[in-house]
């Protein structure tokens, strides 16, 4: 599994447990729909009656509030982690290895073209890219975390 995939896997399941669903689908409907936490929005099935073709309207899938999920994890963590600005602290918060080697691998995975020897610049870029990718894949991320 990719490093970014591990980050997603550690954030999105927490969100599913922490956030109450807007409407509870029938067991048959729930079984036939993939987990929105692991399916990019462009591949998620339509959830409204017009797209489905018939039947009553169903609830739309709400975006995962990434800030809420991470704040919840931070509240339970004994360390004071600055996940809002630090990729190292973000990785620690979700229980991952945050070594320079792991971050360099994440940089390769995300297409970083800068100097990996300049870890400060790489870390800033990584944090922004992870936040952007979370937003692109079903996460609601405050704009200031992606700038």
UniProtKB/TrEMBL annotation:
Region of interest (Disordered), residue spans: 23-55
Pfam families: DUF3597
SUPFAM superfamilies, sorted: RPA2825-like
Biased composition (Low complexity): 23-36, 44-55
Domain DUF3597, first and last residues per copy: 3-142
Record's protein name: DUF3597 domain-containing protein
């Amino acid at each position: 599994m990719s490093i970014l995939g591990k980050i997603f896997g550690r954030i999105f399941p927490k969100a599913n447990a922490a956030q109450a669903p807007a409407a509870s689908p029938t067991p048959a409907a729930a079984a036939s729909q993939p987990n929105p936490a692991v399916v990019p929005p462009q591949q998620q099935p339509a959830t409204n009656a017009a797209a489905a073709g018939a039947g009553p309207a169903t609830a739309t899938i709400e975006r995962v509030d990434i800030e809420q999920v991470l704040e919840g994890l931070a509240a339970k963590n004994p360390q004071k982690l600055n996940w809002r600005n630090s990729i190292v602290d973000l990785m620690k918060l979700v229980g991952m290895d945050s070594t320079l080697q792991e971050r360099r691998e994440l940089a390769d995975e995300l297409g970083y073209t800068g100097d990996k020897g300049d870890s400060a610049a790489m870390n800033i870029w990584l944090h922004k890219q992870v936040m952007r990718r979370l937003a692109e894949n079903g996460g609601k991320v405050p704009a200031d975390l992606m700038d």
